[in-house]
Design a protein that fits this description.
The chain has 165 residues and is of the alpha+beta class. It has one domain: Trna Endonuclease, Chain: A, domain 1 (3-Layer(aba) Sandwich), CATH 3.40.1350. It is 35% helix and 21% strand. The chain contains five helices and seven strands. Strands 1-2-3-5-6 form a five-stranded mixed sheet. The protein has a two-stranded antiparallel sheet with strand order 4-7.
């Protein structure tokens, strides 16, 4: 969803209860498939989870989303920072470059989305593991939360709205 040219209000008009219900149905479908096929994982990931993270972060932080698959960043902040957005349900995220600013959201199954990290990309890049064969470096959500706690509020983007889902 490209929210340029005054379309920011679209996120305010969204029925976030419906979004939450649809997400829960996705989780139920994933669990149901895993029950039918023991030993197989049917995780929600890739573009689906990434896009959910992007629209939720845009809502929470008043970000202007860039076109999908924009190289290097997903949104612009009101003060012009290029913001990479990640959403995970797991314990780690993968990063492929040092972002100017990064917001990492985490959602446990059945739980609300929470901010795991909101700050400059450099601390994450420095703390992440070595490059994997897939071209990404991994860092745990737990480590991200510790890094986030150590950041002064002035280096974070202000949360304008709580997570709607």
């Amino acid at each position: 969803m490209d929210l340029r040219d005054g379309e920011e209000s679209d996120l305010m008009d969204i029925n976030w209860e419906e979004v939450t219900d649809l997400l829960e149905k996705l989780y139920e479908a994933s669990s149901g498939l895993e029950a039918l096929f023991p030993g197989r994982k049917f995780t929600l990931d890739g573009h689906l989870v990434g896009s959910i993270g992007e629209v939720v972060a845009a809502y929470m932080f008043g970000l202007e989303l860039m076109p999908a698959s924009n190289l290097g960043y997903d949104a612009l902040s009101a003060d012009g920072r290029k913001v990479e957005i990640k959403l995970t349900q797991g314990t780690v995220i993968g990063i492929r470059h040092q972002a100017e600013h990064i917001i990492v959201l985490h959602r446990s199954r059945g739980g609300p989305i929470r901010v795991a990290y909101n700050g400059p990309g450099e601390p994450i890049w420095s703390a992440a593991g070595s490059m994997q064969r897939n071209g990404a470096r991994q860092i745990s959500v737990r480590k991200l939360a510790r890094l986030d706690e150590s950041l002064p509020e002035a280096r974070k983007l202000p949360i304008l709205q709580q997570a709607p889902v």
